[in-house]
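Session log. Operator J.P. requested a structure for one protein chain; no other inputs attached. Running the standard single-chain path with token output.
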Amino acid sequence: MTASEAGALEHRIAKACESGRVCAAALAIHADGQTQAFAAGFANAREDILATPDTLFHIGSATKAITAELVWRLIVDGRLTADLPVIEAAPELAHIATLADKRLTIGHLLSHTGGLDGDVIFEAGRGKDVLRRFMSQIQEIGSLCAPGERFSYANVGYNILARIVELHAAAPFEEALGDLLRNTHGLSQFAILPEEKIRQRTALLLTRHGQEWVPSLFGPHSNIGSGTVLAMSMPDLARWGALLAMSGEVASRMRQPAVRLPFNHRYQGWGFGVSLLDGMGAELFGHDGGTAGTATFLRIAPKSASASAWAFAATGPDAVAVYRDIEPLIRETLGIGPAPPRKPQGAPPRDLTPYEGRYERHGMTFDIQAGEGETLLLSASGAMASPILDGLHLRPLTTEVFETTIPALDASIWVSFHDFASDGKPGLLSVLERLARRAQADVT
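Structure written below.
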């Protein structure tokens, strides 16, 4: 990276913080065996603590890629197989009917193709046996489709995988995670437990309401395998990505294509632990994360010289948009071409009436009704539903794919419909990579 390229990236990050688009931001790029990092803004605005390249950010669901590495190391060591039924890997889960289905395999969980209604997240306390207690308290996990049939992002699947790691590595997950990062990869700028985070500079989003500062806190410790707990510096996250790319069989198996996603606006497909961004040949892969008011983006280019990788995290309302602004410059700096254009194939439907109805998943309800002009109106409700999805207008692009703009993110996304019946009504709705099934009252 030249001095002018580095200066341009650093300037953009600083301007984003100065303008208030984000509170703190950090970027690290690992290429040719070297890591360069930049940071700006405040890790803690209330205490005027500046963000530095060593500041830890909660990486959210990017944790899933690290959980997947732990699983694949057990597979490569011969202690598990990707096609092993989940119930055989963890017989203690037999009380959950969907997990007792022998068609559901470890590979399905890794690739989010298990058909699970997957946003089962709740507080089960702390301690090294938290995953066992978490799983024992779950009485039911819904099924949205048969294992292997469709892609639907499932947080709970990665907590199941974390529990499987515990059972077959004979160590609590938090210890296995720490050992992988610290001893296998030689990393040190990370924290799992709150008492570890307060010993390092950790970014915390604090929003001022009158005289009070309200923090955006990370989620339950019981979601440790899926991504609400782990915090890392961006240099360490980028280094982990580069080290993963050079790890031989583990990396090649993780980025092996599992499912193509022609109806997704962000990803070409998904592998067995990572998203595939520029093509199904894993030219670029990685993972996004969002928790505690923080957005994180990890990208790994395995075919570049000495495996390049970059990691970006920011706290604040425009974190996603800021990353979208700087990614083209990062690609150019590393000699990686622009992201391939995404355009769904087909013509828009003439009649939107069959799409109307209610679609449901755990903690979320989506109501679709006629909107203004040739659009549909999406209303979102429920304890797990994000308010940014409520009141969106869906414009048809094809029979399956509709486009909408999320004002809070200043971004356009695709919403898609699937499993059409003979009467033309879709049985499934996909919003932000998650399926919801048409309510039975709408099925005639």
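Operator note: The chain has a mean pLDDT of 94.
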